[in-house]
């Protein structure tokens, strides 16, 4: 017979998986190695005990209220919302356009901007390619990570930098090094090179960083097994920014092996970080990201913003 403390902890764990992570009862049963009927019993018990409360909201939350709620709840200074379209792909195009216009528009002329990776940043590059090339050439653009072997364009950081440079007139700085290395020794070797030194100077003095928010698990998985072991499962990772994974409370999960080439958390926190969020990202992944203290500005669909604003725990 389990203790009362463990019984309550199990109710909380099952409730989080079901209500916050949208896991089915079957998936929860498999993950926790219990029967599906027992999952149902635990969920009902959690309601009866008051651990889970369900409130039906009959009031319509306005776009202004959503933005205000996100800014006040998570300490961010700007929220840019894109209108939802007929499907995720069309909505993501709107998000990418809004993200590009905000990050690379006239108000940001001349800034030194670091660029992360992700499918939505790839769509920002797609949008950029439809635009004319500028006459003036000011500022700089550079990657925030090394490269990875991926079929997804949004993870080819040097290609993203090339496109954004071409379409904004910024000076490009490239990083021809792998993001994921076999050992810490390899990483330290790369950090001793002149090429890395030049990029690190950009990271130290960048005026803005553009990143995406990803779910966990996600594609590509960035070699999580070799770098993190079982830590991401055990510590309940919910999402990723660059190659940094975090839990639902925004705590960055430390890797078993520190061998990833990317801008540091300290460097990100000392600059202005814009997070551009695909419409496929789960609300709990967005919430965890906002709780890291890294993000200053958020570009997101109106629908997903509403879901995040209405979640309170």
Automatic annotation (TrEMBL):
<dbReference type="InterPro" id="IPR051054">
    <property type="entry name" value="SorC_transcr_regulators"/>
</dbReference>
<keyword id="KW-0805">Transcription regulation</keyword>
<dbReference type="Pfam" id="PF04198">
    <property type="entry name" value="Sugar-bind"/>
</dbReference>
<feature type="domain" description="Sugar-binding">
    <location>
        <begin position="68"/>
        <end position="308"/>
    </location>
</feature>
<dbReference type="InterPro" id="IPR037171">
    <property type="entry name" value="NagB/RpiA_transferase-like"/>
</dbReference>
<protein>
    <submittedName>
        <fullName>DNA-binding transcriptional regulator LsrR, DeoR family</fullName>
    </submittedName>
</protein>
<comment type="similarity">
    <text>Belongs to the SorC transcriptional regulatory family.</text>
</comment>
<keyword id="KW-0804">Transcription</keyword>
<dbReference type="InterPro" id="IPR007324">
    <property type="entry name" value="Sugar-bd_dom_put"/>
</dbReference>
<dbReference type="GO" id="GO:0003677">
    <property type="term" value="F:DNA binding"/>
</dbReference>
<keyword id="KW-0238">DNA-binding</keyword>
<dbReference type="GO" id="GO:0030246">
    <property type="term" value="F:carbohydrate binding"/>
</dbReference>
